[in-house]
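User: For my dataset I need records formatted as: sequence, then structure tokens, nothing else. Please produce one.
Assistant:
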Amino acid sequence: MIFTGLISFIDFTSIVAFSTGMLSFFSPCILPLVPSYLIFISGITFDNYNELEFKKYRKIVLIHSISFIFGFSVVFVSLGISSSLIGKFLSTYQTYIMRFGGLILILMGLYYLNIIRIPMLNHEKIIHLKEKPVGLLGSFIVGITFSVGWTPCVGPALSSILIIASTTQNILEGIYLLSLYSLGLAIPFIISALIFDRLFTLLKRFSHIVRYSMKVMGILLIIIGVLLFSSYYSTLSLRLGQLIAF
């Protein structure tokens, strides 16, 4: 019975975690700067990329991108573990945590829809690195560093998964959810590394996607917030799990 409930929770929430991570990639503080991130961590410029050794340079960009992804994933998964631990210690107040978290997510959703303003979310924490540490370990360290700088921008999206993780009281679920969030953020990064030579052209053509992705994110946060605040989230997870089982 407990196992079935766990599977139903994961089936529903995993979709939320993965899609939230993917939408985070299209935020204004990540998508426009992706080419700069790739150049910084790999040391490869577009001029290099246009030379004859195309496959060699693509491999370098891809490998450093994966190391970079592992860096920011470590930070996000660590936050998931922390949220689960907090939820475990405060299990007595779980209902209040869900309602308070739901209210916060509703406000953040309204912020993404430009209905209200939250000044603290308008300031991205910029972390300057004059030089990248050498090698793949350097790319890993840069991933850790930049994830902290992204926090104000992707904070609302990330918070939604952390709040859900805090209601699980299970560290493994926290790890699972934040791993899925990181995977959703990582897949577009890997695709960007593979099409590095065409990235600027595609970004110019589809730059408007940032505006729409933020609207989708806002709606998603409000829906999750309402479900958490009304304590209907667990019920909905269980019912969807039952449907999937059939």
